[in-house]
Each structure stands twice: as C-alpha cells, then as structure tokens.
C-alpha cells in the first residue's frame, strides 16, 4: 500500500485577520481529518507595493475601490499571533504550517520548527527569498503555479545549492486562478514535475469541489493542498473558491478511500473475490444426456456455470475423448 497522502487544509487568510476565527479554523481542520492546517504569514508592506493592482478574481470578490495592499493589510494576522497558533495546533494534534511571503516572515516562522517550509507559487522566481528558505535547513514544499518546467527546475537548483536535498523537496502542481476551470487544471503536468527527481509531486488545488483532488491522488499525488473556509459567504478574496468544513471532511474521506483503492499494482486474484470464481466462471457440462462410451463432441457438451469442474480452456483436450460413464444433461463432465 502506498504512503498516505499529506492533506493540507489551507486556511490562508480566510480568517479575515481575526485570531479567533483562525483558532476556529484550526479545530475545524482537525475535525475534518486534515494532516496540517496552513496559514499565510506576511508583512503586507514588505510584499506589495502601493502601485500593485489586484488580480481580477480579487476585484470580483472584494471590489475595485481598495488597493491590493489595503486589502491584504486588512486580512493578515500580526506576526505575534503565529506562535500561539502553532501551540494550539500542537494541543489539538494537527500539524502547523504557514507560508511566509517575505524575509521578515521567514524569521518569524523559523523558531516554530515546522515540518515543512511551504513556498508559494508567486515566490518561485524570488532569488533572495529562495536562498533564505534554503538556509533554514528544513524540508520544502514548493508550489509551481504560473511556472514553466525550466523555472521550476531553476528554483529547485537554487534550493539545492543552498543545502536542501532534492529528496527533501516536494513539488506541487498548481494553476493560479481562483477558481480554476476544469480545462486549465492539467493534472498530467505532475508527470513532468516527477522528472525533476524530487521527493514527490502533489497538487495545490484552486478548483471548486473535490473532483480534481481525488483524481490527483489517483494519479499519484503525495500531497493535496486545498483552501477551506468556515463560511463561503464571508467577505474576502479566497472564500468563494474554498471548501466549507463538511466538504473538507468529505474530501479527506474520499482521498483515504482512493489510497486504499490504488492497491499494490500487482494484478492477481483478490482475496475478497476468490469465493466468486466458482459462481461466475463456467465449466464443461453435458449439453444433453450422454451415454457411457459416447465420444464428446460440440453437439453433446457445452459450457455453463458453476466453475467447479473442468475449465472451458480445456475444451480442445476434452473433445474426442470417450465418456467413462453416463452423464445427464447439465452435469459436470469428468475425464
């Protein structure tokens, strides 16, 4: 059986800058069965200039009046809150992760000893940022939205040159659009990422629903990252493309079922189906009453269930032999 998929419940900034809401999201992610709950850590003024425009989806979900910087300042938690969120995760028994978006945020998160550093798609071409992440010495999950394979490989090389082993890097295929339309998902791109020889490949999902996540696991994704919210009607840029807690729980259950379904890859008879071989397969039987000494022909034998007698694959061997005893119609032929 394959190793369990790492499921990351992406809280992101869906707490809308409320520590109380963030704490509720930790508990909701744990209850849904996720392995990690992940936030986004940033000092907005260090990430976004005053002239940076909003993305179109952000304009649709939050309006056009405020700038991208004003929007992000309103929904980010202060850096001092993350230590408490990490402690809450430890208390609840769920892994803590947060994506840093600037160099100061890396320093904020470094003492929290996260299992993984998560690099967002937008930082894949940020050389100073990549180098600082590499210096932290931990394992890395790298999202690859908006990137060519060459850009991904270059980022991996920067991390590697900084001391991160390729076997400590997981690459997440991603399409950076909220929500992502089905025709833009391109799950087969995970195969191309596999060629870079990292620890594994996963999927950071921005589609609606859970179909893409289930398909990604079936195709071999070792990590699934999915945005969730306590309420999709809340104001903010990411809520509409997020799962609510019950949907997140359904995704977790579906992924765990798919893991079981993937199996060993060996084609053989499953233990659960062995009792049905006799029921579903056929044997060579008498098509009519056959007298002792009569020759078996295509007129007096046929194939019918059950499969407890001579296999029809022995048909040619049986034809032409003589009956050692009499057989009534439908009885199993014996040699």
Task: Describe the protein.
The protein has helices at residues 19-32, 44-47, 56-62, 68-75, 82-92, 103-109, 127-135, 149-161, 189-194, 211-218, 245-262, 277-280, 315-318; strands at 6-12, 36-41, 95-100, 116-119, 139-143, 169-174, 200-205, 223-227, 283-286, 301-304. By secondary structure, the chain is α/β, with parallel strands linked by helices. It folds into two domains: 6-262, Alpha-Beta Barrel (TIM Barrel), CATH 3.20.20; 271-318, no CATH class. The strands form two sheets. The protein has an eight-stranded parallel β-sheet. It has a two-stranded antiparallel sheet with strand order 9-10. α10 (211-218) packs parallel to α11. The protein is elongated. The model has no long low-confidence stretch (mean pLDDT 96).
CATH superfamily of the largest domain: Aldolase class I
The number of distinct structural domains comes to: 2
Poorly predicted regions are none
* Approximate strand percentage: 15-25%
Q: How do the strands of the widest beta sheet line up side by side? A: 3-2-1-8-7-6-5-4
Please write the CATH class name of the largest domain.
Answer: Alpha Beta
Structural class: alpha/beta
The total beta strand count reads 10
And the CATH topology of the largest domain?
TIM Barrel
Order of helices and strands: EHEHHHHEHEHEHEHEHEHHEEH
Quickly give the CATH architecture of the largest domain: Alpha-Beta Barrel
Q: What Rg do the Cα atoms give? A: 29 Å
Helix content: 25-40%
Q: For the terminal residues, how far apart are their CA atoms?
A: 43 Å
Q: Count of DSSP helices?
A: 13
For the largest beta-sheet, the strand count, sense and barrel status come to: 8 strands, parallel
